[in-house]
Amino acid sequence: MKSIYVIIIVSLLILTTGCVSTNTPEETVTSFAYSASTGDSNTCYELMSSEYKNNTTLDDFATSIQDDGDSWYEYKFISVIEGSKKLNKNSAFLEVEYEKESISDDKSFGLTKLLGKALGQEYVFTKRIELINESDGWKIKDFHVELR
């Protein structure tokens, strides 16, 4: 009986390996954010528009997704804002929420953020993301560090 489960699981893994569901703009953005959070720069790169990939090598992209050059802040994707989707012919715009934290907050065990909140400082922001509908699904037009 266990061997049947193993065969089923292995079969499912083989069938889904390399597949990135990009049926909707929301799925593309959330897939990108998840892949970025796990360090999967190859999947993230595949979710970028053809125009972006024509101008950016995978190596350059992988470097920028790991280190955006901002030594002061860390960005964390939260979610796509419900009802924010605006569709045009072959493009879509989504509003996403992300958190922006000071790097120094890691060293202070969260006290910087706690003090900032007490003083009314905002940590959750929104950003508009543009996607392009290409032959193989929805793709993100430009790289946004906020989707990491």
UniProtKB/TrEMBL annotation:
It comes from the Archaea. PROSITE patterns: PROKAR_LIPOPROTEIN. This is Lipoprotein. It comes from Methanolobus vulcani.
